[in-house]
Amino acid sequence: MTSLLTINSKIEKLKEYLSYLKSYQKSSLQELENDYTLQGAVLHYLQLTIECTIDIGELLISELKLRKPEGAREVFKILAENKILPENFAQNFSPVAGFRNIIVHEYAEVDMKKVHPFLENDLEDFEHFSQYIAEYLLKRKF
What we know:
With 142 residues, the chain is mostly helical.
């Protein structure tokens, strides 16, 4: 029961962070490159959003006693292997774990030309992720 509450709490945080990111979607690449406060906010909320997905996956893996992932990318693979996420989605989504590592460890080198299209086009993947998790939890009556 504690895991379900924690997972639901993480899903709510993910949605909150996603709403912040959506408010920045209309920002141009030039604005993102020139406004360091905007850059910091976007990168921070991207990091938190990605971390929420990894945390949710790790909580499910632990609760279901699935094999332990060797890295963050593998979390999504394990969820797909166990029919929690669609295989194709997990394959396309798993690189966000690497993106999170770049934000955290190489923040000075983050290329806003790569962040901007992600901000404009890929936020819905986080919505899909939370939908897949919610559907799984409902189906399983977790």
